[in-house]
Each structure stands twice: as C-alpha cells, then as structure tokens.
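Sequence, please.
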C-alpha cells in the first residue's frame, strides 16, 4: 500500500495551473482523492494473507488462542490468517514490530495484559500502547493456574508452602519474560507466600511448560489455555486457580484464595491491535470476522474446554478494548512504579 504521506506529496505538482480557481479546484479534487484513498483501497480488504503476530513462542497459551481463531477467521475473511511468533522482552518486541508495520490491515497483534504493564515496566519502550495502535477488539479472558513438575514432593498447596519455606531460592519458577503474565503471577505468588524463588525466563510459557514437564524447572503460573490438558492428563502437580471463583473447565479445583492466599486474583485478558493509521474499513472488517469466528461452535467448545471465556459483545469492539487498556494501564502503572520494578 502507498502510505498516505506519499500520496499527499505527489498531489501538489499535478494541479499547477495559472488560473487561481482552477488551481483551487485541482487541489480540492486532489485532497478529496487523498481523503478517499484509504477507503477506496480498503474496499476489497483483505486481498492477501493477514499476519497475526503472537508475542510469545509457538505452543504457548497466547499462541493457542491465536491458532484456534486463525481457521474460522480465514473462513470469514476469505484469506489465510498466518500466525507468526515474534518473541522477546515480555512481548514488547512483537508490539514494537507491529507498531512500526505498514498500517494496511495485513499485520496485526494479539497481546494480553502486557500491553498495559509494559509502559511502567519498560522505561525505554519504543511504542505507546495508548497512541500507537488502532484497536480491533478484546477476545477472551483466561484464568491462570499454579502448577509444578510432577515429581515435586509437595502434593497440595499447604504442603507446597511448607516445602517452599524450607527450600527457598533453590526452587525455580519458570516464566515467559519480564512483563509476561506468568512473570507477574509468579511475583504475586512470591509476595503472597513470602519466599524468594529463583526465576527462569523463557520465550513463552510453551517452552517453559516443556521445561516443567522435563523436570528442569519446579513451578509455573500459567494460563488454563495451556495447563488444562496437562492437569487433566496428570502430567503436572496442580495447586489451584487464580480466579476469585472456581472455573467450569476445572470444576473441582479450588482457588488459591479459598486455600488461604487471600485476595490472590489474576485474570488474563487478550486484545487484537493494528498499527496506528490502519483504515477503519480494515479494522471493522477484521472485527466483524472475529465476531463470526468467536461464535463458531468448534471455537466456543475449545475455548470452554480450555477455560477461556469469550468476552461479552460489548467488549468485542474497538472502544471496548481501548477503554479497557486505558483502565488497566492506569491501574497497573502506579502499582509497578511504586514497587520500583523495571524490566530494563
Ligand atoms: C505469558 O506468560 O505472558 C504468556 O503465557 C506467554 C505465552 O503465551 O507463551
């Protein structure tokens, strides 16, 4: 796509005329053509594959949501939706790439709470989540779970607390990088139990889970979209969910709060973003396709099985995402700043 600035520059010389009125008319026509350019361009959107950038490694929970949606999205849009994993720096590498991509609707970002926490965590952030993007929609809310390698001696939360007190920083907590929700959840847990765990970063909780299954790390706080199958298969130890109420996907599982970690509540929310300046026609078209995809019975069943809650219609809007992001940024910014925690 030709960037709007280039079209504007090309307009000037094309309307040179000695007659003032004609010149004015020429500029007017040209301006109208320029103003109309994105709309006319976006009319057939999409005409080629769309890249949906995931900020974490393949196989992890964000990736699972993106890939579950990519097939029905492609069906609704008539073009492939290609999931691309661009990892690093707790998701900020991917967000930087998308913020700088051509604003043509062909490069989009799916990201979680990290969009709201990054401005406080990263002092040298290359983008502003509140001004450098167009907002497409919220997607799903996902609870987290606290799990451990299968052979960790502690069989339940009370035993885990005793074990952690005895072992202290000999215990490894895996996470997906500074600013990842697995990291934030791990920090909340560390604070709640008052034990100084050793943290081990990965490019996503996909590889972190592989390390947990392989016994290379001890603990992981991760989204149900990845942990439910492992919990059901008995492949990990499981201590509880991070929501205030029990969840349908794991009805017998206690919450961490009901087991004594009062106020322990972490919920992950996901949204889809486009680079600033992406034509409204493109973001609206993608939003409409997303609504169709989220009503697909296969998607609904899979999300329910994995504990992911499709957000209500009012949040499936650009404004729903934008205002939620603002609210979350205002909520987490002061908390992170006053804790003096920085990722860079
Ligand atoms: C996170 O911890 O932020 C995510 O679970 C990372 C991922 O999707 O791999």
């Amino acid at each position: 796509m030709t960037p709007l600035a280039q079209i504007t520059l090309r307009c000037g010389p094309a309307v040179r005329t000695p007659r003032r009125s004609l010149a004015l008319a020429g500029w007017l026509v040209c301006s109208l053509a320029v103003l109309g350019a994105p709309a006319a361009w976006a009319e057939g959107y999409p005409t080629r594959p769309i890249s949906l950038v995931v900020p974490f490694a393949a196989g992890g929970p964000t990736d699972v949501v993106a890939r579950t949606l990519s097939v029905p999205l492609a069906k609704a849009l008539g073009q492939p939706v290609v999931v691309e994993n661009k990892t690093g720096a707790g998701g900020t590498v991917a967000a930087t790439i998308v913020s700088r991509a051509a604003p043509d609707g062909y490069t989009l970002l799916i990201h979680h709470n990290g969009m709201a926490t990054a401005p406080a965590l990263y002092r040298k952030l290359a983008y502003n989540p509140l001004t450098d993007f167009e907002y497409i929609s919220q997607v799903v809310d996902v609870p987290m779970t606290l799990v451990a390698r299968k052979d960790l001696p502690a069989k339940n939360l009370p035993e885990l607390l005793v074990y952690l007190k005895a072992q202290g920083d000999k215990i490894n907590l895996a996470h997906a990088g500074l600013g990842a929700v697995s990291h934030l959840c791990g920090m909340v847990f560390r604070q709640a139990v008052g034990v100084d765990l050793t943290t081990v970063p990965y490019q996503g909780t996909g590889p972190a889970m592989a390390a947990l299954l392989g016994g290379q790390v001890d603990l992981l706080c991760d989204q149900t979209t990845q942990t439910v199958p492992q919990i059901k298969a008995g492949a990990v130890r499981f201590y509880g969910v991070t929501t205030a109420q029990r969840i349908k996907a794991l009805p017998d599982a206690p919450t961490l709060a009901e087991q004594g970690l009062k106020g322990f509540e972490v919920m992950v929310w996901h949204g889809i973003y486009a680079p600033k300046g992406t034509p409204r026609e493109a973001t609206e078209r993608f939003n409409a396709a997303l609504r169709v995809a989220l009503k697909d019975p296969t998607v609904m069943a899979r999300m329910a099985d994995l504990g992911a809650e499709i957000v209500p219609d009012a949040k499936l809007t650009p404004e729903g995402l934008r205002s939620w992001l603002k609210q979350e940024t205002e909520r987490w910014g002061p908390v992170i700043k006053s804790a003096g925690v920085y990722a860079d």
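The two ends are 35 Å apart (CA to CA).
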